[in-house]
Design brief:
The chain is α+β, with helices and mostly antiparallel strands and about 140 residues long. Helices cover about 45% and strands about 20% of the residues. A three-stranded mixed β-sheet has the order 1-2-3. Strands 4-5 form a two-stranded antiparallel sheet. α5 packs across α6.
Length: about 140
């Protein structure tokens, strides 16, 4: 069973963040530059929220706000769920489904270790299932 720690290890602890006072346009540029779907909104080492592409579309474009004048703090999701690195990817997936979220910070105490996406979790689940299937096939065939 893969843990969240194993999932973030290959990525390292590189997490792209943005200030709550930054404009949404600055956030969109960062999302595009890093080819990611969400930014953690931080002040110093404190997480204040999370901003996703979905937030930008639903809370900006659909209500007629401008990305050049709207601040990140005005449209970010302030409640950030997180997971501990010792948890299994199955627990991670369950939390993401239950809370309907696509990006999940990994925290150990007050320390941010990384952020994982639903895509990262799905890849790991598929890999684990392929290994299980392979082992079962070997067991059944006596190989």
């Amino acid at each position: 069973m893969t843990t969240v720690r194993e999932l973030i290890s290959p990525q390292g602890a590189s997490v792209v963040t943005i200030s709550p006072q930054a404009t949404v346009l600055e956030a969109l540029k960062k999302l595009a530059e890093h080819n990611i779907g969400a930014l953690l909104v931080t002040e110093g080492d404190q997480i204040r929220g999370i901003l996703s592409e979905r937030d930008c579309v639903r809370k900006l474009d659909l209500v007629g706000r401008s990305a050049t004048t709207t601040r990140v703090e005005e449209i970010m999701t302030p409640r950030v769920f997180y997971i501990e690195p010792s948890r299994s990817i199955e627990e991670c997936m369950a939390l993401m489904i239950e809370k309907n979220i696509r990006h999940l910070p990994v925290m150990e105490g007050n320390r941010l270790l990384g952020i994982i996406s639903v895509r990262d979790v799905l890849k790991a689940v598929i890999k684990d299932q392929q290994i299980l299937i392979s082992n079962l096939e070997r067991y059944i065939t006596g190989g």
